[in-house]
Design goal:
The chain is an alpha+beta fold. The chain has 9 helices and 11 strands. Strands 1, 2, 3, 4, 5, 6 and 7 form a 7-stranded mixed beta sheet that branches. A 4-stranded antiparallel beta sheet has the order 9-10-8-11. A hairpin with a 6-residue loop joins strand 9 and strand 10. It starts with 6 loop residues before the first strand and ends in a 9-residue tail after the last strand.
Length: 319
């Protein structure tokens, strides 16, 4: 029997526009794919035990280090799901998504592997099956993930997410221009989530109020996207940042970048992802303002910046 042809699985990075942390507590959030950054998994045939090649390790699946245990479990579960043995393939993983920055690196790598393996064996997985397989790796990476990262890295545009509920694709009234700035410091999703959980347990009323306000911001962001209203979207991002600071997931470095973004013409800026390191996202008033804003953030200490266009679209354009 001939070996399957080499196949490629792709997934993007992700951005959260609103709802970080509150999404863990069954509030809504809004996220979108960050297609400037991608994960790719190339699957090809080899003799003998299956192997993985990545930035962290190259060798057999059986000998992979603990840092890759979630990925290995995800790969094995995917091969089981498509009904094939665990031997005789090589999976080469390449990702431009920096790790630990709140940009969906672990989910994207897992999703690219799931998609690559399914394609390699000519299998068709449902969306729900894909998400269940990606979740295996996400649990290893983050403990108890909400599932928003897994959805975002395979999405086609902005969407509204509530844990356990169907995804709602969101219309965008006109193109919006974002700048993402990397603080250069790895975030710690587990620590950030546990920090909020401790606040919730120790001062439930105050923490609930902040989470409720983040849910209100999500509604405002959804309306602003629909209307293409830059000013409302910017003010909503600023409101979200105030609530995120109040629950302890921002820090002085992120605050400094956000302040510089606002001084340099951004109409709104906030952390994106779990915080305590990672990235900030700033909304430029127009396309012409993107390059100066990115330059200002780099001068203020951002390790790298990326521009993102949220393209105009109707609900009918979403799958």
């Amino acid at each position: 029997m001939a070996s399957p042809r080499p196949s490629l699985g792709l997934a993007s990075g992700k951005l959260i526009l609103a709802g970080e942390h509150s999404v863990v507590y069954d509030r809504p959030a809004i996220a979108l794919p960050f297609t400037r950054l991608m994960a790719r998994a190339r699957i090809s045939s080899i003799d003998g035990p299956s192997r993985v090649s990545s930035a962290y390790y190259e060798g057999t699946l059986d000998d992979a280090p603990d840092i890759l245990s979630g990925m290995v479990d995800c790969i094995r579960a995917t091969v089981d799901a498509v009904g094939h043995p665990h031997d005789h393939f090589m999976i080469q993983v390449d990702s431009t998504i920096p790790t630990g920055r709140g940009l969906g690196s672990s989910a994207a790598v897992a999703a690219s592997a799931v998609r690559g393996i399914a394609s390699y064996y000519g299998a068709v997985l449902s969306h729900e099956e894909e998400m269940a397989l990606v979740r295996i790796a996400e649990v290893h990476a983050h403990g108890t993930p909400s599932g928003i990262d897994a959805e975002a890295v395979v999405a086609t545009g902005p969407f509204r997410f509530i844990k356990g509920a169907p995804i709602i694709q969101l219309p965008v009234g006109r193109a919006l221009h974002l700048v993402v700035a990397d603080s250069g410091r790895k975030g710690n999703t587990r620590a950030a989530v546990e920090g909020v959980r401790c606040r919730f347990e120790n001062d439930r009323d105050a923490t609930e109020a902040h989470l409720d306000q983040l849910a209100v911001v999500v509604e405002d962001v959804q309306d602003a996207l629909r209307d293409g209203d830059t000013e409302v979207l910017g003010s909503s991002m600023n409101a979200a940042q105030r609530e995120l600071s109040a629950i302890g997931v921002s820090d002085s470095v992120l605050d400094s970048l956000i302040s510089e973004a606002l001084r340099s013409g951004a109409v709104g800026a906030k952390i994106t992802g779990s915080g305590l390191g990672g990235c900030v996202v700033a909304l430029a008033p127009d396309a012409e303002s993107v390059a100066p804003l990115a330059s200002a953030l780099e001068a203020a200490g951002a390790q790298e910046t990326w521009s993102v266009v949220v393209h105009e679209r109707t609900v009918e354009e979403a799958p």
